Amino acid sequence: MQPITELVLASHNAGKLKELQAMLGKDIRVRPVSDFSAIEPEETGLSFIENAILKARHAARVSGLPALADDSGLAVAALGGAPGIYSARYADGQGDAANNAKLLAALQGLPDAERDAQFVCTLALLRHAEDPLPILCEGLWHGRILHAPRGEQGFGYDPLFWVPERDCSSAELPAAEKNRISHRAKAMEILRRRLGIA
């Protein structure tokens, strides 16, 4: 496979762009799909993998570049894996604060022992829009849901996600630390190996 020096990230999320650029390093330039199109493809897949491929294929098509898509979310055991693939739009697209409030309401009254959750990240890399063999990498980050938000770092559900091995919420971790241990970091580590990036 030809070395990739530039790719398009199939996301309009500035937080994801910043995290993934930091994880990929300086040898690969990451451009947001918004440089090429304001249209977001409909996420009609029923799994993180399907949605990641849909987004990567769209980004490769509009940019002409290799495309990387990250479909990730939070899966809460007590909610049957919800919000899952609907994590970003759990509260009907009203944003992070509304998503967090809805999650807390759904878990109200549950003790810590029943608040297990995991962040899931699926990365799909397509070399071109018609690539029949996407590179797929998955990372999982286990923790539990707090009863109230803690911390100011990160985005999404980070303030509610307790990281047992660090005794703090994801939103209390410095960005560099989160980028070493998160679901996205684990998936990216696999991708870096597949791409031969040290």
UniProtKB/TrEMBL annotation:
Binding-site positions, Mg(2+) = E42, D71
Q: EC number(s) for this protein?
A: 3.6.1.66
* Keyword match Magnesium: yes
For the ligand (substrate), the binding residues are: S11, H12, N13, A14, G15, K16, S72, F155, G156, Y157, D158, K178, H183, R184
Q: Where is the catalytic site?
A: D71 (proton acceptor)
> What are the UniProt keywords, alphabetically?
Hydrolase, Magnesium, Metal-binding, Nucleotide metabolism, Nucleotide-binding
**Keyword Ribonucleoprotein carried by entry:** no
Q: Which function does this protein serve?
A: Pyrophosphatase that catalyzes the hydrolysis of nucleoside triphosphates to their monophosphate derivatives, with a high preference for the non-canonical purine nucleotides XTP (xanthosine triphosphate), dITP (deoxyinosine triphosphate) and ITP. Seems to function as a house-cleaning enzyme that removes non-canonical purine nucleotides from the nucleotide pool, thus preventing their incorporation into DNA/RNA and avoiding chromosomal lesions.
Instruction: Please give the subunit comment from the record.
Output: Homodimer.
Q: State what protein this is by name.
A: dITP/XTP pyrophosphatase
Q: Which organism is it from?
A: Azomonas macrocytogenes (Azotobacter macrocytogenes)
